[in-house]
């Protein structure tokens, strides 16, 4: 009988915890995201969607800029998780690679620009504590972390774009053969 009571309490406890998590989202990140989305959309309207699209097209014309500068700007200005909305300026086939490059950069930027991903600041602070206890400066580490992050986001963007292109070509071939 005690087993049944423990099981029932655990079952209800799971939903209570889920409710607490949901309320945390409703009172925390969701309002911030709604306001941030509204502000970004208003800024785009103010600047002019044509100008923003033109800038994005220039910035993403070359793969090196598409997977370094563009994700950097997205993460720096919009922070995590809003930075992924910059993908709206890319063609569908490049969106997965942009997302992959941006998501790989939300942590390396934290050392120099903690506003970009405050949720991951505890990781950087843990590393920083160890470095400062050794009497070393954090500047060189933060800079190296940023540079390696840019290199990794470039590699991940290129690899994901290649994989996406292959998958799209395979899908097109398979749909052509199924039609014939």
UniProtKB/TrEMBL annotation:
<dbReference type="Pfam" id="PF03608">
    <property type="entry name" value="EII-GUT"/>
</dbReference>
<feature type="transmembrane region" description="Helical">
    <location>
        <begin position="141"/>
        <end position="159"/>
    </location>
</feature>
<feature type="transmembrane region" description="Helical">
    <location>
        <begin position="22"/>
        <end position="44"/>
    </location>
</feature>
<dbReference type="InterPro" id="IPR004699">
    <property type="entry name" value="PTS_IID_sorb"/>
</dbReference>
<feature type="transmembrane region" description="Helical">
    <location>
        <begin position="64"/>
        <end position="87"/>
    </location>
</feature>
<dbReference type="GO" id="GO:0016020">
    <property type="term" value="C:membrane"/>
</dbReference>
<protein>
    <submittedName>
        <fullName>PTS system, glucitol/sorbitol-specific IIC component</fullName>
    </submittedName>
</protein>
<keyword id="KW-0812">Transmembrane</keyword>
<keyword id="KW-1133">Transmembrane helix</keyword>
<keyword id="KW-0472">Membrane</keyword>
<dbReference type="GO" id="GO:0009401">
    <property type="term" value="P:phosphoenolpyruvate-dependent sugar phosphotransferase system"/>
</dbReference>
